[in-house]
Amino acid sequence: MTGTYTIGALSKALKPTESTGKKAEKLKNLFRVTENASPVFVIQEPQKPKADEKQAKMRRRTESDDEEETENVQKLKRPRKPKEKTKEIVIDPNEDKRTVFVGNLPNTLNRYTIKKMFQKYGKVESVRIRSVALAASKLSRKIAIIARKFNPKRDNFNAYVKFSKPEDAVSSLKMNGKIVQNKHISIDLESNHKKHDNKKSIFIGNIPFNVQENEIYSHFEDCGEIVCVRLIRDQETGVGKGFGYILFSSEHAIEFALRLDGTKLNDREIRVKRAGESTNTQSMKDIKKTKKIEANKEKQEIGRAHV
Predict the structure, then answer these.
(1) Which among 240, 160, 159, 258 has a CA at the least distance from the CA of 200?
(2) Sheet with 240-248, side-by-side order of all strands
(3) Model confidence pLDDT, tens digit, residues 31-87
(4) What is d(CA 135, CA 155) in angstroms, rounded to the nearest whole number?
(5) Which of 40, 73, 170, 283 is the most exposed place for a label (fewest CB within 10 A)?
(6) How far apart are CA 128 and CA 221, in angstroms?
């Protein structure tokens, strides 16, 4: 099949017509930028993570958890620093054999003078002062000893002297009964101090609270050799409780001492018995009786002061 061709038909077809020109102009106007035109923002919705990204996040989390767990395990496996060992208190079984009890020492002495007194028998390791009668209950015992704040009703105290060797402590017993500043001091090994030989001891009751050991020595010195005088005192104040014990060197002295039962000591009728003969109940009676007498004396003195 053959067609006819008209000259100029091709160029006419390629030449833009009026209608196509208008269409092109409209397209240009759409993309033309003006000065006063406001900017256009395009907001995109967040895209949901894909399945692969979720799996990757989960994998990273598990890996970090595994790392933390391994670190914790390593910390637990690390060797801990050994705890410092507490200092063990070493108890010397022979300490009481190296220590002597010294009673009825003048309160004018101190640790230095007591140590110097016993150094001639051997090396003295320590001196402990005990049974101090304080001037005021608020003061500590240590401060009272340093400041010399003693109760004026009592002028003595006791002490413990510890030597480096047991034989030195035994040698120091030679000072028992010696007079130091007008006071008979009594010395015994600490291991024997709390033991009472009832066969050679007497109990004395109804004695004044403020009586001193020297007064007991003077009252019973004619009965026989006195080893020591022990007056029971209050632990806080150091004031006597109205009874005590006397230890003699022999049993024969007991018979002479019992004859002094009912005799007066500082205007008080004292009670003398063999040690161990129901002295516990008797000592409580003596305390009550002594307290009543002391209270009556105070009332009388107050009454005289008002007259």
Answers:
(1) 258
(2) 226-233, 240-248, 201-205, 271-274
(3) 565 555 556 555 666 665 555 666 776 766 666 665 665 665 555 555 666 666 666
(4) 11
(5) 40
(6) 29
